[in-house]
Structure of NAD(P)/FAD-dependent oxidoreductase:
Amino acid sequence: AEEPIQETDIVVIGGGQSGLSVAYFLRRTGRSFVILDDQPRAGGAWLHGWDSLRLFSPAEASSLPGWPMPRPAGPDAGFPARQQVIDYLDAYEARYKLPLRRPVRVEQLTRHTDGYTIRTDKGTWRAPAVVCSTGAWTNPVLPAYPGQADFRGLQLHSAHYHSPESLAGQRVLIVGGGNSAAQILAEVSEVAHTVWVTLTEPTFLPDDVDGRVLFSRATERYHATQAGQSPAPTGRLGDIVMVPSVQAARSRGVLQARRPFVRITTQGVVWPDGQSESFDTIIWCTGFRPATDLLGPLGIVDREGRVATDGTRAIDAPGLWLVGYGNWTGFASATLIGVGRSARQTAEEINAYLPQPQPSI
Ligand code: FAD
């Protein structure tokens, strides 16, 4: 027999840092809500990062609302490792007794006059308000090059890269101009011959600039823009942070990027000058798109996976909010420290949207 439909005020889709932040503020409203997450445990995208991945900022600059990330002891005191972020998110869920359901994959969202039907692989929910905080890590982007399907070596997206060991002694092509590419290049180049390809010359930040500096500069720029001033051009959140492994790669002389090849062959690539070069593995560090396929039936998702929003509120779908993802849903909302602000605003808007708003959160 079909399971009964479960009713609640708010369904939060995605239990990564963004979903948890929204939940932190939602619990203060006294509304009923549930967080549906398709992973087997806490951590969101951090579960899938490569083994050596570390935060760009110290613990105290990487906290979710309400409870600072504990500062790790010993050699990790500087920049917390991936596992420490996972442990923090896990403890955060427990501390605030957040109503997570795992693993539950939301397949489709449909809208009715009085709210949404949320269809999942574990039954159906109905709610007048929905928060979509599905992140992007489940939706890696691969550019298309002629001949790509013919390549006989291994092609891997950074989303599925874990560690360099299995690449030892190989010829490895690394594609992409961001932090993922730089960090993966840094460690793969210790065991393999690497070639790095970027669309334009990569932008390296000064050695003493970490996530904190980037965030405060970006904040200044944000306020300047809000105030109608033209902001000074400074580092962007996507520019390459010179973490120790990337500095070491520079010292070894391997942090050199060249412009793209024109096509892929069975053995490797062909450069614009006609020269061929063979590779065993291509690692695509070419980014992600918002995981918004589940919103397809609403007809509000553009080709980039984005939705028109005012802040986090979907303009063309009353009762739907999108949190995380990056600046288009709120300044720095794709960072641990930045998402709290849009999470609070979102919870306030939802509380006001639902009948009988509670006084204040
Ligand atoms: P996610 O963490 O992706 O969580 C979304 C959750 O929703 C996941 O569990 C996902 O599986 C789930 N989900 C997706 N679709 C569905 C569905 N249909 N049904 C149910 N569940 C679903 N950020 C920082 O703050 N500091 C840093 O130093 C930092 N360094 C980074 C370094 C690199 C190399 C990269 C790539 C990213 C870094 N980030 C950093 C960014 C950070 O990893 C992400 O922005 C962040 O994880 C986004 O959180 P989120 O909660 O929005 O999404």
Observations:
- The helical segments are 17-26, 82-95, 179-188, 211-226, 244-251, 339-353.
- The two ends are 40 Å apart (CA to CA).
- Residues 83 and 89 are 10 Å apart (CA to CA).
- The chain has a mean pLDDT of 92.
